[in-house]
Design a protein that fits this description.
The complex is a heterodimer of chains A (139) and B (125). Chain A is mainly alpha-helical and 139 residues long. Chain A has one domain: Up-down Bundle (3 helical TM bundles of succinate and fumarate reductases), CATH 1.20.1300.10. In chain A, α3 runs antiparallel to α4, α3 packs parallel to α6 and α5 runs antiparallel to α6. The longest helix of chain A has 32 residues. Chain A is elongated. Chain B is mainly alpha-helical. Chain B has one domain: Up-down Bundle (3 helical TM bundles of succinate and fumarate reductases). Chain B is built from four helices and no strands. In chain B, α1 crosses α3 and α3 runs antiparallel to α4. The radius of gyration of chain B is 20 Å and the shape is elongated. The relative contact order of chain B is 0.10. The chains are: A mainly alpha (139), B mainly alpha (125). The interface between A and B is medium-sized, with 22 and 21 residues.
């Protein structure tokens, strides 16, 4: 039996957790973008930790190992990886400061939260671009 | 009864159970973040003050014992910060308990190893 109530139930949209394949089609507001980027950059920094510690080690052991570290870091693949990590660190750092401010109830209103989320990108992306220019020897 | 006038705002009829590790980790995530902000600021000031960096200038930043201790504290804060963050990621995305526990255990062991390695790196300078 098809009652009006049954068809209404059938056509009602269901909201479940979004699937990975849907993420790319979602138009996320700036705070959501800051949030997921914070997570992605954090995970990237965690995965890069062994390499970063290794480079830190090389940079401190001796003059020779310091030169070796500089040589390793001068290849263009290494430079692209480093640039990505610099961006990750900058984003994680700036977004993290925003979260600390939100914890203290600063800028928590919706419009303010959107604005300061955009400010995170406005600070971290130019700094990353600057680091990139420096890294690839533009100045 | 303490439960009846609980100040948490959750309500008098709900019994909140658990070991409250979540609250502790939430606060430690913020504390370790603050430590890292302060450390980055100090390191940045010292790097700028050192002038053009070569090996000697860079390595001598880490020679004073207070800098070793400060750097180690910052690295330990970083590792604990990473532990909480990675645990949250595994908990959010990895549903099978066996896989999640394996990943969490490996993460913890790896970060612990990094902590030991950090001591070796710093005290060799």
């Amino acid at each position: 039996m098809s009652t009006p109530a049954a068809t209404a139930t059938k056509s009602r949209p269901e909201f479940r957790n979004i699937h990975v394949s849907q993420i790319v089609r979602y138009r996320m507001p700036a705070p959501a973008l800051v949030s997921i980027m914070h997570r992605i950059s954090g995970a990237a920094l965690f995965l890069a930790l062994p390499f970063l510690l290794w480079m830190f080690d090389l940079s401190l052991i001796s003059e020779t190992s310091y030169e070796r570290m500089a040589l390793i870091a001068s290849g263009w693949i290494a430079k692209i990886a480093l640039l990505f990590l610099i961006w990750a660190l900058l984003h994680h750092f700036v977004a993290g400061i925003r979260y600390l401010m939100l914890d203290m109830l600063v800028g928590l209103e919706r419009q303010q939260a959107r604005n300061n989320a955009i400010a995170v990108f406005a600070i971290s992306l130019p700094l990353a671009a600057l680091a990139g220019l420096k890294l690839f020897g533009a100045f | 009864m303490a439960l009846a006038n609980s100040p948490s705002g959750i309500g008098p009829k709900r019994l909140v159970v658990g070991a409250h590790f979540g609250v502790g980790n939430f606060l430690l995530q913020r504390l370790t973040a603050l430590i890292l902000v302060v450390f980055v600021a100090i390191l940045a000031v010292r790097v700028v003050a050192a002038g053009p960096l070569d090996y000697v200038a860079w390595a001598s930043l880490f020679v004073p014992i207070w800098m070793k201790v400060l750097t180690l504290v910052a690295l330990l804060a970083l590792l604990y910060h990473a532990w909480i963050g990675m645990k949250d990621i595994w908990m959010d995305y990895v549903k099978p308990v066996s896989v999640r526990l394996t990943l969490q255990t490996l993460t913890a062991l790896w970060l612990l190893a990094c902590a030991v390695w950090s001591v070796q790196i710093l005290w060799r300078v």
